């Protein structure tokens, strides 16, 4: 497995990057730097990220038209679980801008030439598996409370969820379970993809480094997770259009967060 960079990097040697302590001021600075990256090249960033809100609209239309309304929120919130993977091209743009290199939009696809592509794919597969597990869990929770019966309409479903004990139970249990999934993704991938782009350490070590970063900075990085969730929710109003700005800014900011959390390699 090491030859595929799942355990170690290209040199078949496990490297453990050093972790820094950060605070809320660092989160704010990472977000400001991410916004600066977005403003420096907004045209190609929007081009890359417009798919995200469009997928949201399609998912909403699909669930409404197929009586799968109970899965609308799990689909939309769960889609954010694979957000760290979706931002890979934008991490590359931030990396190039930081290094003073050309940041034309086509360089976002240079990731395909990275020696860490197998490791990136492995971590991406992990996120997809988490996404599927969340959908299955959300479906099981709904069936346990309401049975395998689809709501009559969107209005009926919303009214039932917001005004009945069963609905409150669904919100509470679903929210708690969703929070667990979100914490798992945060702890394993918060800086995994930027690290792999910067240093071919292998998928295992990229995820382990993310975990060590959260252990070393639990308050700050949990705060980062809540900030991301809040901005994604805000960007979803109205009709997910705000995600065209929110997603690229967060992706760029994640690169700068990685720079603050992980010490550069020793010479």
Rg on CA atoms, Å: 19 Å
Distinct helical segment count: 13
The percentage helix is: 55-70%
What is the straight-line distance between the termini?
Answer: 27 Å
Could you give the count of β-strands?
0
**SSE run:** HHHHHHHHHHHHH
Q: How does the major sheet shape up? A: none
Overall pLDDT, averaged? Answer: 85
Net shape: globular
- Class of secondary structure makeup: mainly alpha
Describe the protein in words:
The model has no long low-confidence stretch (mean pLDDT about 85). This protein is globular. The chain has about 270 residues and is an all-alpha fold. The chain is about 70% helix and about 0% strand. About 40% of the residues are buried. It contains 13 helices and no strands.
Could you name the key traits of this structure?
single chain, 267 residues, mainly alpha, 0% strand, globular
SSE inventory with pairings:
Blueprint: H1 24-40, H2 42-49, H3 51-65, H4 72-79, H5 83-86, H6 88-98, H7 117-146, H8 154-163, H9 165-189, H10 192-198, H11 203-216, H12 218-235, H13 243-261
Helix pairs in contact: 1-13, 2-13, 4-7, 6-10, 6-13, 7-9, 7-10, 8-9, 9-11, 10-11, 11-12, 12-13
Structure described in brief:
The protein contains 13 helices and no strands. The protein has helices spanning 24-40, 42-49, 51-65, 72-79, 83-86, 88-98, 117-146, 154-163, 165-189, 192-198, 203-216, 218-235, 243-261.
